[in-house]
Amino acid sequence: MAESAKLSALVVARNEAAQLGACLDALRFADEIVVLLDRSTDDSAAVARGAGAKVVEGAWDLEGPRRNAGYEACAGSWILEVDADERVTPALATEIAATLAAPKADYYLVPMANHIGSRLVRYGWGAYNGVAAKPVLFRKGAKRVLGGRVHPKIELHGKSRTLENPMLHFVDRDFSDMFARLNRYTDLAALDARDAGRTPNVAQAFRRFWSRGWKSYVARRGYREGAYGMALALFSALYPLLIELKLATLGEKA
To answer: What is the distance, to the nearest Å, from the Cα of residue 39 to the centroid of all Cα atoms in its chain?
Structure first.
């Protein structure tokens, strides 16, 4: 890759030793690999160093400062941001190299091939339980993540394009893992809502339960995925309702 388009591959992780090695193996085409570890207590650091990665360790309560610290640690003029449960395919790596040889945008959306276990699940995903594409290839400085514990807002600057080849995303191992993630995400989102001074609105969330479930199962064609589509629709429907219920009871927990 040309010196003017040096690529840093960034992985932000916490206690991901079990799958970090496979993720890093797929990133060897990059000029630099940076692994930012947030309060990891497993062997993630050893795995990362064994793969030749630059390791940055620390503690961040919010997603924005955590991600932004990772961007700052990258030496490349371009950054490819990959989570430990994602895999860059050889076809995508080739496309990225060709793109950065003569970039025509400041950031690129990469399609996501979302899996549950080993099964590719194409339909039924939504903003909170899996996205179709993410802006994970960008010039350094073109992307910044704002505050929040989960699903923070993103600032993007410049022109955008979309790559053709998808990144593999192993979202959940199974149904149990899916709903454990739902519980974890809604815990964090309720804390974000509390910190923002928002009052709970359970009635509105209950009304959205039906519309969100319908959108996932029918409009996004989750019905084509059988039991997986039903589970995704339930996840989507429950997400805002659980946040409001947890927000309403945070004071009792305290």
So the answer is: 18
